[in-house]
């Protein structure tokens, strides 16, 4: 059973604002077309920026001559790697002291993936900019390159970087002794699973405008998940950190694809070089060609269970194709490592998670961040083990579900309530009666899958977020927080949290977000961390501000502080409806007495050292969000086509600050996973991208999808404000396994590779490929 | 070299365009090959019309040309000559309700807010216009018909359920009105 809520000792009914499906202020702007996205920004004298990209996946640059391009009319500047103070920033992408790497901003002498930036131009018009790109002379010496991740990982393979092993990260997890576990097993299942490379495909392509402000500060207003990139930009331009400012306006989607820098270094450098405003908007073709993707994973799983279904041992080997640069791969692989066994108790675990350099398009962060791909494999293993033991899929899960306090494979305890039994029941029930096949060749099948997804950064990154709240003289409230709003309601949720504590109505709250000069830094919007981190910062700030002004209000009302109620833009006395004063009156009195009415507060996440590198034992993520999805599909056995008939996605969100926004995250996250399960794929041939159009990168359209039922459970046990858990990423993982299980149920053939295309299903059914192995 | 005002004319063969944009006559110079999207966004500053793919697949740049939804990225600017273009900013006025002020919202817009049918909001202008055109032609569509009609407008945030909910809510509200 879901435990009684414990946050604040308040029951949900006691909240006035939290838990209500309030309309988001940003949505009202968006439906009117009023929101100024990155590409909508206009400035006088603004130039157009463009990038010359490598046409080869792997080549030496023998000659790069920009003289003719520079001489063209309308061209303000052409820059190559040598024109930048530093064409890259040295970083440790592991955060654990394991690797130093400088990822180039512009290629210098060699290109390592198709679409890699080689030179940048700024010109008076788009036509002039394109003409300049055409006039840049590049002589390439194409090289064969390394394109197969598994081959690249073998000893003696051709190297992507001279003097560096292709395998550049290898995380290990060792717990118990898997051999002991397998010896005692009644059933052992061994399979290899493959997930494909996919694109974020936010509707807003990468865009930004940069200018040198009147005070000399290089200002970049860009579609970015991380305003803290101002530091890297300053390093690249050889400027003090406080001379670069990044503004993130409301984003047209991010999903991790705007976590690494996109246009920022290029527009910043062009503005720095010309002294004029420069706008750069990437074409969809550029975005699909060259932006980092979700990693393609190869996952070998060996799972052993006792006759009663108890899991005994799990041995996992994971290989990820990172492309030529580390970017966020080490962290993606670490997340995958930690959740490799899924939300189950397993006494003996051995996991090796490796990322390998190739000359394929780079891979980095995408919603679900490595953890989501693992769901496809560990949930399939659960089904296969259940089948081998003659158990229903739900039963084997129930037998092994983690419970609060159980040890994870990392040796740390599951720190909050695990609602999986209830989530499973609710998701299954939501499907209702089984549909009848629509024709003689149609087969209907159902599947379930559970998952756990971390929220918040790994504890050794010592995460921190800050927020500023201030009451105005009229009793309205201003919130400043360096939070980029990706569209998930990141800004609106802060208003709802502050409104709960301070009693200001949400319409009277103005939220300023995403400006590294004017809003206190909150860390980027990624890792499902903003509600957890900035939500806690805003909550703390609101409580401290309330504590500051409460004595003044109490004096005005001649009441005890403990009896005060902050609501409806007033401070009142509990049980005495006519004894109240407006917040404006309280603010005036605070001013008279010299009591501050604004405050800056920070929330410090848990801090810990990295886990033991040989065993993976230690503290890793702050907490997890658990979920269960259920799907019903119809497969046409004649064509292999899979149609999704019903879909339910159930998550314990701890506390829903805004239930409508939470359900929206669940529906949208599930849809993204469904797209990966059934159709999306960035297809490469020897590093050459074959899917640089939306016409052949196929994501779900409205008629492709059924209604997605979002089911929200609130255990009250999360580490965010009011007991909330993060929900941005968790819904993306389960669809991969849920749909695969449903297809297996319908056809008797288990998909081991994504996407589950009609061709793959057809071939598997025809026995020409795939493995006929039951469910 | 400087990119100053003295840069040569790149498009000597520009055409003088006049059309109605959200109920007002506008004038613009356009090259014959300029897309309507470029004319609207870059020349006329109608940045509520979005670029999403430039290949007519995502529907993000949808506008109404004489009331019919089209992809502005695949339409030439000269095609708008003498015709009417409606963007999301003209939606409230396009409802034709007497006394509709510019800042008002069309019932579809209000439904999108109430149902949180927009998240990042980038597809929303196009989505609203397609939905508007659907309801103009078919006042009482089923959910399946709504989904089909929105098939040319991609959304990456919502999974579409809420968008269909919002459009359906408008249909229901209107049916309620019909009966009254």
Describe this structure as you would to a colleague.
The complex is a heterodimer of chains A (775) and B (180). Chain A is an alpha+beta fold. Chain A folds into 3 domains: 7-35 and 464-604, Aldehyde oxidase/xanthine dehydrogenase, molybdopterin binding domain (Aldehyde Oxidoreductase, domain 4), CATH 3.30.365; 38-143 and 206-281, Aldehyde oxidase/xanthine dehydrogenase, a/b hammerhead (Aldehyde Oxidoreductase, domain 3), CATH 3.90.1170.50; 296-458 and 611-765, Aldehyde Oxidoreductase, domain 4 (2-Layer Sandwich), CATH 3.30.365.10. In chain A, 26% of the residues lie in helices and 26% in strands. Chain A has 18 helices and 30 strands. In chain A, α13 links the parallel β20 (477-481) and β21 (509-513). In chain A, α9 packs parallel to α10, α13 (490-502) packs parallel to α14 (530-557) and α16 (659-678) packs across α17. The longest helix of chain A is centred in the last third of the chain and has 28 residues, at 530-557. Chain A is globular and about 80 Å long. The relative contact order of chain A is 0.13. The model of chain A is unreliable at 3-10 and 769-775 (pLDDT under 50). Chain B folds into 2 domains: 15-89, Beta-grasp domain (Ubiquitin-like (UB roll), Roll); 99-179, DNA polymerase, domain 1, CATH 1.10.150. Chain B is built from 6 helices and 5 strands; from the N terminus they run ββαβββααααα. Chain B has a 5-stranded mixed sheet, with helices on both faces. In chain B, α3 crosses α6 (161-179). The longest helix of chain B has 19 residues, at 161-179. The model of chain B is unreliable at 1-8 (pLDDT under 50). Chains A and B meet through α1 and α16 of A and α3, α4, α5 and α6 of B.
Keywords, separated by commas or semicolons:
heterodimer; A: 775 residues; alpha+beta; Aldehyde Oxidoreductase, domain 4; Aldehyde Oxidoreductase, domain 3; 7-stranded mixed beta sheet; 18 helices; 30 strands; disordered N terminus; disordered C terminus; B: 180 residues; Ubiquitin-like (UB roll); DNA polymerase, domain 1; 5-stranded mixed beta sheet; 6 helices; globular
């Amino acid at each position: 059973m879901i435990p009684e809520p414990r946050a604040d000792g308040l029951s949900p009914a006691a909240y006035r604002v939290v838990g209500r499906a309030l309309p988001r202020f940003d949505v009202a702007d968006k439906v009117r077309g009023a929101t100024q996205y990155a590409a909508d920004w206009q400035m006088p004298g603004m130039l157009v920026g463009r990038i010359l990209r490598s046409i080869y996946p792997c080549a030496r640059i023998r000659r790069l001559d920009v003289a003719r391009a520079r001489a063209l009319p309308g061209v303000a500047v052409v820059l190559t790697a040598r024109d930048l103070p530093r064409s890259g920033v040295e970083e440790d992408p592991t955060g654990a002291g394991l690797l130093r790497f400088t990822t180039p901003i512009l290629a210098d002498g060699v290109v390592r993936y198709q679409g890699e930036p080689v030179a940048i131009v700024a010109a008076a018009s788009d036509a002039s900019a394109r003409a300049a790109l055409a006039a840049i002379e590049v002589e390439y010496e194409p090289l064969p390159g390394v394109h197969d991740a598994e081959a690249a990982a073998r000893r003696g393979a051709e190297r992507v970087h001279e003097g560096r092993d292709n395998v550049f990260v290898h995380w290990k997890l060792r717990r118990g002794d898997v051999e002991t576990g397998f010896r005692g097993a009644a059933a052992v299942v061994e399979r290899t699973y493959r997930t494909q490379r996919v694109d974020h495909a936010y509707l807003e392509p990468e865009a930004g405008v940069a200018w040198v402000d009147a005070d000399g500060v290089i200002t970049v207003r860009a579609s970015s998940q991380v305003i803290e990139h101002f530091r890297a930009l300053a390093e690249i331009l050889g400027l003090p950190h406080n001379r670069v400012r990044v503004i993130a306006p409301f984003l047209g989607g991010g999903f991790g694809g705007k976590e690494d820098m996109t246009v920022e270094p290029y527009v910043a450098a062009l503005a720095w070089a010309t002294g004029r405003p420069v706008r750069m908007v990437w074409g969809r073709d550029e975005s699909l060609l060259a932006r980092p993707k979700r990693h393609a994973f190869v996952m070998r799983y060996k799972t052993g269970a006792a006759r009663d279904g108890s899991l005994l041992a799990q041995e996992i080997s994971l290989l990820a194709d990172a492309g030529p640069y580390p970017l966020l791969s080490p962290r993606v692989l670490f997340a995958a490592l930690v959740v490799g066994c899924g939300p189950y108790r397993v006494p003996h675990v051995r996991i090796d998670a490796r990322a390998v350099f190739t000359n394929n398009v780079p891979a980095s962060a995408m919603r679900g961040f490595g953890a989501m791909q693992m769901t496809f494999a560990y949930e399939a293993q659960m089904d296969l083990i259940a089948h081998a033991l003659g158990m229903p899929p739900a039963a084997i899960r129930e037998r092994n579900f983690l419970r609060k306090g159980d040890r994870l494979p990392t040796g740390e305890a599951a720190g909050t309530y695990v609602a999986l039994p209830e989530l499973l029941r609710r998701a299954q029930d939501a499907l209702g009666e089984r549909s009848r096949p629509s024709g003689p060749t149609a087969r209907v099948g159902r599947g379930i899958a559970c998952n756990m997804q971390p929220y918040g950064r790994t504890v050794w990154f010592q995460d921190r977020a800050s927020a500023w709240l201030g009451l105005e003289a009229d009793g309205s409230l201003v919130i400043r927080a360096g939070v980029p709003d990706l569209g998930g309601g990141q800004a609106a949720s802060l208003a709802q949290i502050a409104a709960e504590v301070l009693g200001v109505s949400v319409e009277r709250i103005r939220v300023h977000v995403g400006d590294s000069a004017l809003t206190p830094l909150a860390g980027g919007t990624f890792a499902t961390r903003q509600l957890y981190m900035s939500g806690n910062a805003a909550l703390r700030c609101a409580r401290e501000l309330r504590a500051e002004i409460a004595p003044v209000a109490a004096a005005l009302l001649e009441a005890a502080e403990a009896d005060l109620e902050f609501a409806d833009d007033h401070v009142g006395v509990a049980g005495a409806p006519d004894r109240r004063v407006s917040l404006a009156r309280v603010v005036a009195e605070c001013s008279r007495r010299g009591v501050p009415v604004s405050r800056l507060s920070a929330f410090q996440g848990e801090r810990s050292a990295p886990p033991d590198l040989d065993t993976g034992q230690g503290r890793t993520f702050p907490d997890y969000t658990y979920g269960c999805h259920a799907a019903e599909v119809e497969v046409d056995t004649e064509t292999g086509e899979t149609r999704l008939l019903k879909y339910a996605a159930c998550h314990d969100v701890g506390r829903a600050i805004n239930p409508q926004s939470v359900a929206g995250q669940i529906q949208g996250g599930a849809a993204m996973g469904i797209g990966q399960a059934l159709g999306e794929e960035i297809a490469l041939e020897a590093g050459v991208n074959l899917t640089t159009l939306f016409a052949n990168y196929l994501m779900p359209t409205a008629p492709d999808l059924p209604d997605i039922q979002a089911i929200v459970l609130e255990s009250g046990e999360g580490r965010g404000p009011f007991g909330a858990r993060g929900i941005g990423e968790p819904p993306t993982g389960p669809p991969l396994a849920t749909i695969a299980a449903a297809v297996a149920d319908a056809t008797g053939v288990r998909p081991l590779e994504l996407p589950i295309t009609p061709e793959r299903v057809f071939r598997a059914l025809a026995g020409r490929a795939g493995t006929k192995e039951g469910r | 070299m400087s990119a100053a005002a003295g840069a040569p004319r790149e498009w000597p063969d520009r055409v003088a365009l006049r059309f109605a944009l959200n109920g007002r006559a506008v004038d613009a110079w356009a090259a014959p090959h300029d897309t309507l999207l470029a004319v609207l966004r870059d020349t006329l500053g109608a940045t509520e019309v979005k670029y999403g793919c430039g290949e007519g697949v995502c529907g993000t740049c949808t506008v109404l040309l004489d009331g019919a939804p089209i992809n502005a990225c695949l339409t030439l600017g000269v095609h708008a000559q003498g015709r009417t273009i409606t963007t999301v900013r003209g939606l409230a006025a396009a409802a034709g309700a007497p006394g509709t002020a510019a800042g008002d919202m069309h019932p579809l817009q209000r439904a999108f807010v109430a149902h949180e049918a927009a998240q990042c909001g980038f597809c929303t202008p196009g989505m609203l216009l397609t939905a508007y055109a659907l309801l103009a032609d078919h006042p009482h569509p089923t959910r399946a018909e709504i989904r089909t009609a929105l098939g040319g407008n991609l959304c990456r945030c919502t999974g579409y359920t809420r968008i269909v909910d919002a459009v359906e809510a408008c249909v229901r509200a209107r049916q309620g009105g019909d009966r009254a």
